[in-house]
Amino acid sequence: MRKITKEIEILEVLEDNPTMTQREIAKRTSFSLGMVNSLIKKCVKTGLLKTEQMTPKTMKYILTPQGIKEKTKKTLRYIKKSYNEIIKLSNKINIIIENSLDKNIYLLGEKDEIFEIAKMTLDSKKVVYEHILNKEDIKKGDVLVLLWDIELENELENEFVNLISK
To answer: SUPFAM superfamilies recorded for this chain (predicted)?
Structure first.
């Protein structure tokens, strides 16, 4: 899936700014210069991009109609796959909390996308929970900690579930 998102990101950057250099693209996307070069060559070879020499040092990248169509298809596939992953995570959380409603439930971690999915799932079931950033904030007693940072696992003595592990 990550390869698809890299291609989409390159196509989106070039659609917004077709005269951007590969070095600028690499900086904007956080890809290596070699990765950008490889992805652009692949997109040109497969007919998604067309190049036009502006000056001896400047290249212009043009999304072809096929490139626009492919970008749209890849974006849609990415959205569908992401949506399915959100549903899986939400179902996983529902199963976990089904047997833990009598416990104090904590969400341990930063407020990111995983937090938002967990929050949305717990809120929809009207489950009482507390969001914390530090393990020291866990109160004594029968608790369940939901986390999504693998590094926090080794620090916990309480029952926990890492939401992003299989």
So the answer is: Winged helix' DNA-binding domain
Residues 6+ apart with CB under 8 A from 42: 7
Say what the pTM is.
0.69
Which tens digit of pLDDT belongs to each residue from 118-154? 999 999 999 999 999 988 888 888 889 999 988 777 7
**What is the reported pLDDT for 158?**
67
DSSP 3-state helix, strand, coil percentages of the chain (rounded to 5)?
Answer: 55, 20, 30
Element (H, E) at 2: helix 2-16
Q: Which fold has domain 2-74?
A: Arc Repressor Mutant, subunit A (1.10.10)
Q: What are the residue boundaries of the structural domains of the chain, listed by start?
A: 2-74, 99-162
